[in-house]
Write a structure and sequence with these properties.
This protein is α+β, with helices and mostly antiparallel strands. It has three domains: 148 residues, Roll (Ubiquitin-like (UB roll)), CATH 3.10.20.70; 404 residues, Glutamine synthetase/guanido kinase, catalytic domain (Creatine Kinase, Chain A, domain 2); 126 residues, Four Helix Bundle (Hemerythrin (Met), subunit A) (Up-down Bundle), CATH 1.20.120. The protein contains 25 helices and 18 strands. The strands form three sheets. Strands 10, 11, 12, 13, 14, 15, 16, 17 and 18 form a nine-stranded mixed sheet that branches. A hairpin with a 5-residue loop joins β11 and β12.
């Protein structure tokens, strides 16, 4: 049997950067970004070319204040969207939504209709507002039976419609929510929108207590970063684990890895830069504000980051980023890997979720101010965030609990499973001083100035270091939730952050009102909150063993494995958190727990089956062939009357012993799986415990075998090739 690896290597070595059509401006020069930006997005600017000003103003008021769109207004917008989409070659439309798979879903309907047998294009307000996809095959966590298939998608008008343009035609995509016949949320978007409303209610309440009575709206904003790996498709096509699981399940470490630290921020390879350029062009057309691109820490790892947007738009745009990463990568003969841990021994990939709050006056409520009143507002919102995090940090851990993220969290490359907050040395000292009551003998304004808070903009933006080990770090005027997995939808973590913060703000407001309101009451409530939240603040190295011990003394949970973290969703406190803010009903939260547990088990089982198949079909045959070859060599020496050297016999013994260990490890996996519970949390814990241990031993035995087998007999692309030979 021929080895496909040399053919793949030849294919990879002959790759060149892909050329693709670039928009042209005057005199054949490249068009500026502004010429292509949002040309495929039906945003307010696009509406202005198709609708009168009064219709647009009515639409913006409805979106701003969460009002229901009347049918007349919806019909006008639908007709304008139809004209805009057809002008750009669209033939179909779809409600584009986020079921609880973590991916997106779409069912395409044609614009075609008939009038006296003559075809025409038709798109009404009713078709825009609502559709009825079959809900029977999406995860529901027990909220509906299989025979109860009716589900509804409903337009989210706060997120712009957009066109997905492919060589076969264009489709108008309508960002939507997905609910059951009885109104239960069957998606990730609905809880996010509810959580944005919940945090707005409490944040406006706090603004009013602070004297900012003209604030009538507060919106959660987000800017997700996205890490990913690129591997040549020739390599990926020969790796069943990359194709099915999105990560390598076996593979001996390459001699180099990331130890020289020369990839991070290094010169971007030509093929990769061509890919990045086309990706950004596609994103710009959709109105996604891609900002930053660079090499990440591990070889063949990269990152793209976008600018801040309202949280639900940011969530939609991050889904587009992930979809386009994969689609554009294929055009450049790459496979984009979004798994949290595609390769052992090098850094995995995360999705740093930058989060803040902005009010209706355009102010970032986590922006440290330049005067006492602004300082007080900042400290109030800061302490409210810390209150929510201190009370419900385990909830944030639960929302990022996946099988893949367990390989990354706490692995000296990502924040640990212990949720804590980093403020920076100076801001932490200020918070500590306030908690101790220092300089409180005067008015709040004077006290803040005495504590050095009066010039926080310079402090926060210039003097606050970054703690890359912290899972929830303050970075100048926002918090960065750094523990989110790279292939996750950010909607669920964002919904949790919003809800946790809403709870912290509500508690702070209640304390202020109990103290009589006014600046003195705010100051006293802030002081109480900073005293209470001291355990959640940590300025040191979150990777260290000392922090694990210190966190235990502080009473912070260390939910290392996903099943233990997911159990938090079952607690009474978590149910009270989501139900009291109207984000999730009890059965909706329960469904998410069951879906997450089932997804964990299914993912682990798929990986186990793929690994065992690769061992059976690739590793064992290669190792047997190697032993047979060495045995033949020894037999040939004996037949020639030549004594085999100790090195000859030792080589045979090493391969023979490795084969025995591999077979034993392979049997141990089957035994561990058979001994596990049939379903539910106990089966999940088995896959996180004894089965995971057996799988780890099987991988170790396989990686040992790889190092012993002659290269021409090894059929799987190696780490050396996948990480360092991508054209």
């Amino acid at each position: 049997m021929s080895n496909p690896r040399p053919i793949a290597l030849r294919t990879v070595s002959e790759r060149t950067p892909r050329s693709f059509p670039r928009p042209q401006g005057p005199e054949g020069r490249p068009a500026p970004i502004r010429a292509v930006y949002a040309t495929h997005a039906f945003d307010v600017e696009a509406m202005r070319n198709h609708l009168p000003g009064d219709v647009i103003r009515r639409f913006q008021r409805a979106v701003r204040h969460g009002e229901r769109l009347d049918r007349t207004l919806a019909d006008r917008i639908a007709q304008a969207a139809l004209e805009w989409a057809v002008e750009r070659g669209a033939t179909h439309f779809c409600h584009w939504f986020q079921p609880m798979t973590g991916a997106t879903a779409e069912k395409h309907d044609s614009f075609i209709a008939f009038d006296d047998g003559r075809p025409l294009s038709r798109f009404t307000g009713g078709m825009l507002i609502q559709s009825e996809p079959d809900a029977s095959s999406f995860p529901s966590g027990g909220m509906r039976s299989t025979f109860e298939a009716r589900g509804y998608t409903a337009w989210d008008p706060s997120s712009p419609m957009f066109l997905i343009d492919r060589p076969t035609g264009a489709t108008l995509c309508i960002p939507s929510v997905f609910v059951s016949y009885h109104g239960h949320a069957l998606d990730l978007k609905t809880p996010l929108l509810r959580s944005m409303e919940a945090v707005q209610v409490q944040a406006v309440r706090l603004c009013h207590l602070l004297g900012d009575l003209d604030v009538d709206r507060v919106v959660a904003t987000a800017g997700p970063e996205q890490e990913y790996f690129l591997v040549d498709r020739a390599w990926a096509s020969l790796r069943p684990d990359l194709l099915i699981c999105g990560r390598s399940l076996l593979g001996a470490a390459a001699p180099k890895g990331q130890t020289l630290e020369d990839h991070y921020f290094g010169s971007i390879p030509a093929r990769v830069q061509a890919f990045m350029h086309e990706l950004e062009l596609e994103l710009y057309r959709l109105g996604v504000p891609a900002k930053t691109r660079h090499n990440e820490v591990a070889p063949s790892q990269f990152e793209i980051a976008v600018l801040y947007e309202e949280a639900n738009v940011a969530a939609d745009h991050n889904q587009l980023v992930m979809e386009l990463l994969k689609r554009v990568a294929e055009r450049h003969d790459f496979a984009a890997l979004l798994h949290e841990k595609p390769f052992a021994g090098v850094n995995g990939s995360g999705k740093h979720l930058n989060w803040s709050l902005a009010d209706s006056l355009g102010r970032n409520l986590l922006e440290p101010g330049s005067n006492p009143h602004q300082n007080l507002r900042f400290l109030a919102f800061l302490s409210a965030v810390l209150l929510g995090l201190h009370r419900h940090g385990a909830v944030l851990r639960a929302t990022i609990a996946t099988h893949g993220n367990d390989f990354r969290l706490g692995a000296n490359e990502a924040p640990p499973a212990i949720i804590s907050a980093f403020l920076g040395d100076q801001l932490d000292r200020i918070c500590t001083a306030i908690a101790r009551g220092e300089a409180l003998g005067t008015s709040p304004d004077t006290a803040m100035i005495a504590l050095g808070v009066g010039h926080l903009p310079e402090l926060a933006k210039d003097s606050t270091d970054r703690n890359r080990t912290s899972p929830f770090a303050f970075t100048g005027n926002k918090f960065e939730f750094r523990a989110v997995g790279s292939n996750m939808s950010v909607s669920w973590p964002l919904a949790a952050v919003n809800t946790v913060v809403a709870d912290g703000i509500r508690e702070l407001c209640t304390r202020i009102e109990a103290k009589g309101a006014g600046d003195a009451a705010v100051w006293a409530a802030v002081q109480d909150a900073l005293v209470e939240t001291a355990p959640i603040r940590f300025e040191g190295n979150n990777y260290s063993a000392e922090w694990v011990e210190e966190a235990a003394r502080r009473g912070l949970p260390n939910l290392r494995k996903a099943p233990d973290a997911l159990a938090v969703l079952e607690s009474a406190a978590t149910h009270a958190l989501f139900t009291s803010h109207g984000v999730l009903a009890a059965d909706e939260l329960e469904s998410r727990f069951h879906i997450a547990v089932e997804r964990y088990i299914t993912t682990a089982e798929i990986e186990g089956q793929v690994l065992c198949g690769m061992v059976d079909q690739h590793v064992l045959p290669a190792l047997v062939a190697e032993r047979t070859s060495l045995a033949s060599d020894l037999a040939a020496l004996r037949a020639a009357g030549i004594d085999a050297t100790a090195a000859d016999r030792a080589a045979f013994d090493r391969v023979h012993d490795a084969l025995q260990r591999l077979r034993a490890a392979r049997t141990a996996v089957d035994t561990a799986v058979e001994a596990a519970a049939a379903h539910g949390m106990e089966r999940a814990r088995a896959w996180a415990g004894p089965i995971a241990d057996a799988v780890s031993q099987l991988r170790a035995a396989s990686d040992t075998a790889e190092a012993l087998v002659a290269d021409h007999r090894w059929t799987l692309p190696t780490y050396r090739e996948m990480l360092f030979q991508n054209g």
